[in-house]
Amino acid sequence: MPAEKIANILKTLPHKPGIYQHLDKNGKILYIGKAKDLKKRVSSYFTKGHDSARIRVMVSKIADIKTIITETEFDALLLENNLIKEYQPRYNINLKDDKTYPWICIKKEPFPRIFPTRNPVKDGSEYFGPYASVKVMKTVLGLIRQLYTLRTCKLNLSPANIESGKYRVCLEYHIGNCKGPCEGMQAEEDYLKDVEAARALIKGHLNSVKKMLEQQMQKAASDLRFEEAQALKEKYEIVDRYQAKSTVVNPSISNVDVFSIFSDAEYAYVNFLKIMDGAVLQSHTIELKKKLDESDAQLLELALPEIRQRFKSNSTEVYLSHEIELEIPEVHFHVPQRGDKKQLIELSLKNGRYFRLEKLKNIQIVDPDRHTKRLMKQMQQDLRLKEEPRHIECFDNSNIQGTNPVSACVVFKEGKPSKKDYRHFNIKTVEGPDDFASMYEAVFRRYRRLLDEDEALPQLIVIDGGKGQLGAALKALEELDLRGKIAILGIAKRLEELYFPGDKYPLYLDKRSETLKVIQRLRDEAHRFGITHHRNRRSKSTFKTELNDIKGVGDETIKLLLKHFKSVKKVKGANLTELETVIGKNRAKLVHQHFAAKPEK
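RESULT FIELD:
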């Protein structure tokens, strides 16, 4: 019945913009979406296959569809945003409000105060923000205090109260931070000029503030009010220094919004920069948890209108890191490719990555299990694996001029070294320096043993080397009937290229990628472990003597003989009694008989 009902709904959908709601059998909203063409968008859920398992699960639960037609796609976007906030469907990304961030308030009252607050109230006052950085907000307020003499008291300065002489000037007046409007020493018209200038400064219009100060300075000078002109000049220089310090690009880039996005396996990070006169006025990053494996462009389309609404932005110029299919009336979207505009995108991405790094550091400390789970999922996505690589093994060969060839196998579990599972392999079947044959032997011996002992196999094997070593390891897996059952890749040292079986071209991961860092750490650990074992073997073979050929005489006995007699020649010349005093009767007899049977030539 649901399938028949859905089919009938699809037939009647219009080719118009609007929003759609997917409902389950209980009438609960599963998902709310917007569409430029409702019929095409909604039908696509039921007429094509979906790579995402989450989308397949959601579609299987849909029992009903409701739609609302709108005039434009932008209207649909705003309606979608409001409905998601109201109903918070399971498969929608929820954008939370910033109720804890501070704002700058210009209070609606006689002689308006300007102060910070975390609780905006709908009382007609003006609010600017939210400020993700309290430091930035305090810098702006500090600049206003330096430039303008605005009151900080909470007195009700109504005309009646001032005329009645109800108030007296405070310390702020005496130290020059206020002009005493409470006693009628400053006209409200004069006070509001400073408020207007402060408003322009909060909005980031530094050029207009400088122009205003310059005009006042020139008028004061022409009226021979030189002290006032000097004070205005000093204020101009303060604004100029602030602008020089805060400007990051060409000052001609004004009233621009910058949005960038990047993502990992589970989350996406959208950074917003507000640019005014070349300076960053606002910077804010939000984290979005993916629900239906959305693309970066889709997530950016969702976040952009919400952030603009949150920050009350009216910029008509928006720079983006990704192309999006979104139309907002009178707003021009642009993806910069070079120059100062591209630099702004890079700055935005840098801010977003810093936000993510700080968040991950915190998670790693307070919730290591969540960190491991996220890392495993990220590696699965980056390396295109069928399952998370909870158990990884890495192989490396060591030999010098073909002597004492060894292979090392290191094991990582949950992204960390499991040293008790490390293994060495003294290569037995290879003559001379043959890396490929050595790799084949080590891999074959390792997994034949795991199979024989019914031990758990890894989800991923990493081979330190290029296509040749990878091919040798793959041959070993084929002979054990393990090809396709364990993922395998090779890492070439020079350019950190990752090779997969059957792929013509290598995979290059971002140098900052956590996945690449884990693989590099595996490779380095295998190299260290193999080199250490190889050095031990070389040192043993370097000091090999004729005493090593005596059956029943071990390393400790040889050490005692050489320590006492100082050389093999003196051991040969020692009689049985002398030998017995050093190593005992039984072993002395073995040594004496060995050299007696081989008289010196």
